[in-house]
Amino acid sequence: MNRKKIFFSFFLLLTSISLLAQTPSFHYFDHKKLTDIQGQVQSIGYEEVYGKKSEFLMLSILSDDQRLFRVEVCPQWFFATDIAVGMKIRIHGSLLQTSDDTLYLIAQEISIKGESITLRDSKGFPLWSRRGQPGGHGNRKGPGGRGKR
Amino acid sequence: MKITAKYIAILFALSIFSIGFFYILNLSNRRAVEASTLELAVSEGKTIEKVLGKAAVGLLEKGEIHLVNFMDEIFANDQVVYVAIKRSGLLLHAASKYEGYLPLENEFQAVKTFTSPLGEIIEVAAAIKDHSGQDFSAHIGYFFSAIGEIRNAAKNNFLLLTAIQAAIVLIIIIFLSSFNQQMLRKEIEIQKQKEEKNKFQEISLITAGINHEIRNPLNSLYLSYQMLEPLLDHANQEAVFHSNSLKREIKRIQQIIERFSTLSQAISVRREEIDLQQFFVDMQPVLAGMAMRPEIISRHEPEMKITTDRSLLTQIIANVVNNAAEAGASRIDIVVAAQKDKTVFSIKDNGPGISKEHVKYIFDPFVTFKARGSGIGLALTKKMVLQLGGRIEVESAEGRGAEFRIYL
Description:
The complex is a heterodimer of chains A (149) and B (408). Chain A has a single domain, classed as CATH 2.40.50.140. Chain A is 13% helix and 36% strand. Chain A is built from one helix and six strands, in the order αββββββ. The termini of chain A are far apart. Chain B is an alpha+beta fold and 408 residues long. Chain B has eight helices and twelve strands. The radius of gyration of chain B is 47 Å and the shape is rod-shaped. Chain A binds chain B through residues 26-31, 49-50, 53, 56, 72, 75, 106, 120-121, 123-126, 129, 131-132, 134-136, 140-142, 144-149, and chain B through 64-65, 68, 75-76, 78-82, 85, 91-104, 114, 116-119, 145, 148.
């Protein structure tokens, strides 16, 4: 029984690490594909998901129905709440379809320990961006995303 | 007072209506500016959509890569928030200046607007077909910062204009209200003066009648006394005593009649510039001649002058001082000061004061609260003050002296 648990945990860890490395080349918040998930934090990482802009907080979440999600949260400087592996978490966001069938979620709102953190507005506008200035912070053109050809 | 309350209610309703009217007017103006700027932006969008469609068709003939590069060039523009190219409904290429922000509202319409934290975003979509018949659509989401500026200016102007108009309305209302109050006060004052004049006229008539009826028999009485007086036995002390008593009482009645006459007679005014320093020096003998001799202290600013009737002013001050002295005051302070366009004579005593019930009748003729008063002194004083175009008021409390203030 213990061996099974250890093996399963190891498997999850490996999967999480491999998932963190798989960011779709271009992705966007599709406000028509919103979903809610609830689960446990499996791993926490930081990644440059939008070119050379600030590193993003990335989580891998094992949902209560045992599905593994890769969750894009927000730039790490914007997230001021303590988060740790094993924590229960609830996420509302936009689910992306990736070519390798990874469940990729762009978070709009996160609830941890009863605290709710809003990250994007209803259309997916990032709340950390300075209003009224195209490009926000970062370079003028901004990496945005590059589509698949 | 009922009229005033009604008037104020009307003014209040009028002000609310005016402010509301201006608010609606300004709001509709603001909305019109906002709508027309948006309309302008949308019409610009339609032009862009046509140009984009034509350019995209040309570029597709050279291959997709040319279209993508063209869209990237468009994306470099400051006003553009995102660009996207779809092929048969699927996303082929996209770029956004805000991480993952690609609302792609426009599926069917050529131009669509929607609000965002950046302001009003206009999305233009051009439908394109390449030479093989494949459907493409190019999407540009952009905003005009000028629209935001115009809208902000419209909003600020709306607030400023409404505030200014509300302030003007309130100022007018306050002015009208204050004017109404002043008119009402004046009306009451005129009414009061009219009533007092009528009262004096009635009293004058009565007094004139009494004078006429008493003066002649009294003269006969005094004449008879003068004829009897030499026949009197001066050795008879009792006869002398009664004779003197008779003479004194006749004189007293004559004096009373004389004062009554003064009250009923018209007072003539002869104005001149008076130096107050000299005036109080001249008043010394008048005040010194009083039966009671209270301590009198007068104060005023140096070289103070007043234009009024010297004789009447002397009588006014003498009457008030005499009244205080008769009431039992041992010290009287006369202070003269300039107040706005008036000169105020404050005559304050340390006498027994006047009760609250008596104060309101203190200037009425024939009303006296002193044992030997006739009730003429203060009534006459008031008549003289009014004749000089001034007013007199009293402030007193029982046991705490009295202060008469004469405004000339």
